[in-house]
Predict the 3D structure of the following.
Amino acid sequence: VRYRAVLEYDGADFRGWQRQAGRRSVQGCLEQALLDITGSPTTVVGAGRTDSGVHATGQVAHFDSVFERPAEELARALNAVLARDVSVRQLAPVVEHFHARHVATSRTYRYRLLVDEVRRPTERRRSWHVGPVDPAAIAGAAMQLIGKHDFGGFGTPPLAGGSTIREVSRYDVLLSDDSTVELVVQANAFLRHQVRRMTGLLVEVGRGRRGPADVASILAGGVAAPVRRAPPQGLVLEKVDYPADPAEWRTRSESEDMDAQRE
Amino acid sequence: VRYRAVLEYDGADFRGWQRQAGRRSVQGCLEQALLDITGSPTTVVGAGRTDSGVHATGQVAHFDSVFERPAEELARALNAVLARDVSVRQLAPVVEHFHARHVATSRTYRYRLLVDEVRRPTERRRSWHVGPVDPAAIAGAAMQLIGKHDFGGFGTPPLAGGSTIREVSRYDVLLSDDSTVELVVQANAFLRHQVRRMTGLLVEVGRGRRGPADVASILAGGVAAPVRRAPPQGLVLEKVDYPADPAEWRTRSESEDMDAQRE
């Protein structure tokens, strides 16, 4: 049976999503938990390959399992076995041609900036303290990034030589309270480090160190931007979208692998 | 010069506010930082004596220092020297009869409950996962706690035999999102463990295990409630209030020491 899972994790103590020998990864922990519960080796495929330190509240994954009792039982067993920094929020059987990464139509990430003059200890694990910035300038630059562009200046594709064209459909700049500016970005897929590089650029714009011309030239040039990427702890993978109609899940090629996000 | 400071800290790695030999406390860290900066031993007095693991975003403290340059310089120096889990949010000289604890007219605490069926890894350091509860039942019981009552059933006074009468002026139950119920309580002062015991009781009411009669009988009986106190990581000292008119800062007796909150 193929299962579709919605996962949440605190990225601080993981070396990212992807399984790596000798390093603690979210994928590795899930696969180990499934092995412990079912006795069968299981491969878990995630929609977004989040990087070391990046969090998720809405990561989506699929796996095939020999488990045959109700999905709620498997979810309960996983949440009992998994460490406290990862949990299965939803779990349901799904048709076999569902593929968490290939079928996804968009990913949504949120980045939390702390704009107080003074650092905030209670927020430090989930934000980047940048100090005062101009949110209007950030919003203007974020607007420039919306659309179908060559984002090669912001990151690398999953396969060397692959396309660096991606389509950003939304880039919201939210003033959630006096201390916090949240950047919510949605795209069909992201290049590796794209979100954190875009965030780094937007913060420089917000500090008045870069302007609209810099954003335009990085988008036009397609070369690696001399922009430091934002640190991982401010970033959360919030949502992965799929076509509502399962019939459309077949239409995307298995070989198409757009999402390289390792933020 | 006497200074008044507003402090923020992540309580996870502190054994509470109060200095104790051989244990890491917020007071101890501040006093050490002041000693490092000024070269003079300095005692820091906090408005609320938060307990091990409890956070603060608006703790208020006062201290007398030989430091004579502008307060902003001292704040900057403190924030450079202090560990990343504590910061000085505001610092200003204040008249010498200001006393952070004795002059305070109220304290406001916020407790964050997670009411999802499934635990949430990204919220675990700042909430208590209680699962589904009935917010309306909690709000009803919280209403019962508002007013001037003998809270002896919820905690102990700072000095053995001291008064256990306190006045709760506000107990809000906020549904901040699908996952979270926040309890915001304000009182002139709190007994030791009072907020966490009240929270524990409200959660039992929310689960249908206790009712209005239990709340009334604990308030009437004045004996220790057989209620487990809520864990510390969900609690934040948000605000301490003082009379707007500094003339009123003299009116409260130095010997009056109502606040024993060690949450």
Q: What stands out?
A: The first strand of chain A starts at residue 2 and ends at 9.
